[in-house]
Write a structure and sequence with these properties.
about 40% helix, alpha/beta, 5-stranded parallel β-sheet, about 625 residues
């Protein structure tokens, strides 16, 4: 494998590959040519669409070797975190479809069962591959399926407890299966922890050492370390193991994230996730200068709070750059903790810090926080510990699709006794919510915010703690009330303008809190308007459900006004541009206005004056 330094557009070997079966008739020298062309083609494809590049470039040779030696899809190949699998997609009949990668109606950026028989198990969150592979291996031995089972897992994913739970079970059961450890010393951030140190030691010892590895102590035959970019060596090892293995085997392949593409290899994140770029130079497409991203606003606000309060610490689960905590760490390195891909541990670690009197901020994406729900309940909520949860990527996230959507956190946190749950309407509100969380010391508190740029509002020099459980009214009207939680507030204001143009007077309020509710605000909006519409960027069962529950308990749902709760649809929303996703979810200004108008029209509430205005609007 050489470093690609110039554009070579011809790919004659790859052009002749219609599927993995075509690889099995080629010589090793021909397979090496396929690998070189596959690397170039992968770079070209991702340069056009953007996506996760570095991970795939690190497994080009592994991908070719696995498909050349094993009889996929008869043999089951499971990729841990599917963004390693772009080259796999190209080799398994989806080369042309790569032009639609991560786009509306296009192929997924991860493995997906409904997309191909070569994707037997979907994967977008890490550390699941060994468990799933063991399931396939046990099913095979019970007569459900045939063939070998191969899992490819990165060293970063091995920092998660689930990987060890699976290895513990697999080693005990002794089923024939192959685990290929893709050791590139990276996840999104550099790998951390004692296991990473163990792998470093194994690399230093080389393949000739007689010292047992951790994997052998867990019941696996261990092979390696082997150069993951030496295709000839990989082919020889996999062929030998396919003929001789009689139990679980771990192959330790040492790779380089971004391998073979100089711009990726020299980049700090190894081109983990990129926008479109120039394939020759590696120059990323420049986005237009815009307002600060919510993530950056959060990180800087937290760093400011930590400047004033030595009790504040920040925790991330292998997402230092994604959560902005790399910026926090520049100012407070001794109070920044990257625990690896270990959300369960992160939450209970934070609980311990809180119990000791510190102020931990646990910064985890909404979708990844799901992995730690028992710890949130048992270790934080039941003990009423003041852990602060900074929940990034709230709502729909665009190209990463349903696996990374932040749809459920409002529902799964607001139903816990003693929890305070906030949602920022804009970046200024986010600064105030960071300050609120820092000041709150009487139980767990969470604040959520979306991916991407803010609205452009002026930021306060210093955040001010909000009164817990109190919302605000931004616009007062008499016909319809729009009660927003989170960043749909801007769309509610635009919806109010649309309704005003149709002769309707609209109040707009920002709830700020999903729990505790501002019950006085909710009751006054319900009592003083013909219709109340709640709007949130979350699933059914969240903020709107809590509003309904409160109004029902007060006897206010007995027909005196219309009420609608607008949420994300009860489905896993497919990937698309975020604006399009919210539009088809009915959560843009036009959709909100339609729902509000229809509710008032259908129910005929509000008396003769409103009915007259409605008649004119119609």
């Amino acid at each position: 494998m050489g470093i690609i330094s110039k554009t070579v557009t011809s790919t004659p070997r790859l052009d002749a590959i219609c599927g993995p079966q075509d690889l099995r008739h080629l010589s090793d020298a021909d397979l090496a040519e396929v690998a070189d062309e596959l690397r170039r083609d992968t770079i070209a494809k991702v340069a056009a669409t953007g996506g996760h590049l570095g991970s795939t470039l690190g497994v080009i040779e592994l991908t070719v070797a696995i498909h050349a030696v094993f009889d996929t899809p008869h043999d089951t190949l499971i990729w841990d975190v599917g963004h390693q699998a772009y080259a796999h997609k190209i080799l398994t009949g989806r080369r042309e479809a790569m032009a639609t990668l991560r786009q509306d109606g296009g192929i997924s950026g991860f493995t997906k069962r409904s997309e191909s028989a070569y994707d037997p198990f979907g994967a977008a969150h890490s550390s699941t591959s060994i468990s799933a592979s063991l399931g396939f291996a046990v099913a095979r031995d019970l007569g459900f399926g045939t063939g070998d089972v191969i899992a490819v897992i990165g060293d970063g994913a091995m920092s998660a407890g689930m990987a060890y739970e699976a290895m513990n079970n697999a080693g005990a059961l002794g089923k024939r299966m192959f685990v290929i450890l893709n050791d590139n010393e990276m996840s999104i951030s550099p790998s951390v922890g004692a296991f990473s140190t163990h792998l470093t030691a194994r690399r230093a010892l080389g393949a000739l050492t007689s010292e047992c590895s951790l994997f052998e102590h867990m019941g696996f035959d261990y092979v390696g370390p082997v150069d993951g970019h030496d295709l000839g060596a990989l082919l020889a090892i996999l062929r030998m193991l396919r003929e001789t293995a009689d139990g679980p085997v771990l192959i330790h392949a040492v790779t380089r994230k971004g391998a073979g593409y100089a711009p990726a290899e020299t980049s700090a994140d190894k081109y983990h996730g990129v926008s479109s770029f120039d394939a020759v130079t590696g120059t990323l497409a420049k986005s237009k200068p815009g307002t600060p991203a919510y993530t950056k606003v959060f990180a800087l606000a937290l760093a400011d709070e930590a400047d004033r309060d030595p009790a504040i610490v920040a925790i991330t689960a292998a997402m230092a750059s994604g959560t902005g905590l790399d910026q926090f760490a520049r100012r407070h390195p001794e109070r920044t903790f990257d625990v690896g891909i270990a959300e369960q541990h992160a939450v209970t670690f934070a609980a311990g810090l809180a119990a000791a009197g510190m102020k931990p901020f646990c910064a985890i994406y909404s979708t990844f926080l799901q992995r730690a729900y028992d710890q949130i309940v048992h270790d934080v909520a039941i003990q009423n510990l003041p852990v602060r949860f900074a929940i990034d990527r709230a709502g729909l996230v665009g190209a990463d699709g349903p696996t990374h959507a932040g749809a459920f956190d409002i529902a799964y946190l607001a139903n816990l006794p003693g929890f305070t749950v906030m949602a920022a309407a804009d970046e200024a509100e986010l600064v105030h919510m960071v300050a609120t969380a820092a000041a709150h010391d009487t139980g767990p508190i969470a604040f959520r915010f979306p991916r991407g740029e803010g609205t452009g509002v002026a930021l306060p020099e210093r955040g001010q703690a909000l009164e817990i459980g109190k919302g605000r009214i931004l616009r007062e009207g008499r016909d319809i009330a729009l009660l927003s939680l989170g960043t749909r507030l801007s769309e509610c204001l635009l919806a109010a303008d649309l309704l005003k143009a149709r002769g309707l007077s609209v109040s707009v309020a920002d709830a700020r809190f999903a729990k505790p509710l501002d019950t006085l605000l909710i009751e006054s909006l319900a009592a003083d308007h013909a219709a109340l519409v709640t709007v949130e960027e979350g699933a059914v069962g969240g903020f709107g459900a809590h509003v309904l529950h409160h109004l029902a308990a007060q006897g206010m749902l007995d027909g005196s006004f219309a009420i609608r709760t607008l949420t994300l649809p009860d489905r896993f929303e497919p990937q698309a541009n975020p604006r399009d996703m919210y539009e088809r979810s009915g959560l843009t200004a036009a959709g909100i206005a339609r729902s509000a108008f229809a509710a008032t029209e259908k129910n005929g509430h509000g008396g003769p004056a409103l009915r007259n205005r409605m008649a004119k609007a119609l």
